[in-house]
Structure to design on (246 residues):
């Protein structure tokens, strides 16, 4: 259903140990709310990303539950602490069961 | 200007509807808050909610929430068909308890943020956003 889904994440390439960095994430997704109707009056079924998580070396940074009131192409900005060099793992969970992933390495 | 019996009844019915509708919208938001807090009392300080006073397009309204030390923040839009917007759960590596995103608002309404603070208490903040064009289609 949701086609052309493309995650994009902006993370600094390097940071000093213990530094707090800002992460911006965006994923192209229609986020069909389940409230809209098509031309013939039928309700367009809900199709959204319902959960987004960010982990660093397996430790949770943020875990967001999304509802239909989140805009098309869900965008999030948040802060993370970088204790040592490693990798951020971003995961988006779609209503239709698809899982979209992206990873970013950070050097210290 | 004189009202006929029919007009008076129509006006009365309209007024009754006007008072009932906002109450229903708020009731479902209150249910969502109660489910999140477990009915605990909420303080007025401890959580910050940033939202524009006037949003031209209800489809993308930028908001940000911040609650130092919070473990979770619930965001609600009381006037939407479904009041839930998002729940932010902060993990041990969260730099600070701040997040921003873009939300949909069906019309002019209050946006509410409820934070679960580090000591287990809850805090609440709300802000009225005027919406020129609603963002729920239909």
């Amino acid at each position: 259903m949701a086609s052309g889904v493309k995650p994009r994440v902006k993370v600094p390439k390097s940071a000093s140990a213990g530094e707090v960095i800002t992460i911006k994430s965006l994923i192209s997704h229609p986020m069909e709310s389940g409230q809209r109707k098509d031309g013939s009056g039928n309700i367009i079924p809900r199709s959204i990303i319902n959960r987004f998580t960010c982990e660093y070396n397996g430790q949770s940074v943020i875990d967001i539950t999304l509802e239909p009131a989140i805009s098309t192409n869900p965008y999030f900005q948040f802060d993370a602490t970088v204790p040592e060099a490693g990798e951020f793992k971003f995961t988006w969970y779609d209503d239709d069961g698809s899982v979209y992933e992206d990873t970013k390495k950070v050097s210290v | 200007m004189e009202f006929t019996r029919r007009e008076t009844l129509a006006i009365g019915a309209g007024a009754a509807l006007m008072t009932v509708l906002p109450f229903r919208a708020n009731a479902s938001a209150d249910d969502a808050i109660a489910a999140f807090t477990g009915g605990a009392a909420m303080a007025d300080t401890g959580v910050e909610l940033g939202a524009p006073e006037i949003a031209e397009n209800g489809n993308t309204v930028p908001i940000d929430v911040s609650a130092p030390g919070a473990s979770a923040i619930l965001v609600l839009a009381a006037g939407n068909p479904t009041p839930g917007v998002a729940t932010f759960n902060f993990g041990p590596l969260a730099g600070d308890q701040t997040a921003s995103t873009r939300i949909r608002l069906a019309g002019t309404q209050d946006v509410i943020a409820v934070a679960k603070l580090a000591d287990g208490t809850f805090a609440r903040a709300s802000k009225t956003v005027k919406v020129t064009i609603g963002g729920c289609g239909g």
Q: What stands out?
A: Chain B has a mean pLDDT of 83. The interface with chain A takes residues 59-61, 64, 77, 80-82, 84-96, 98-105, 135-138 of chain B (CB under 8 Å). The CA atoms of residues 83 and 110 of chain B lie 10 Å apart.
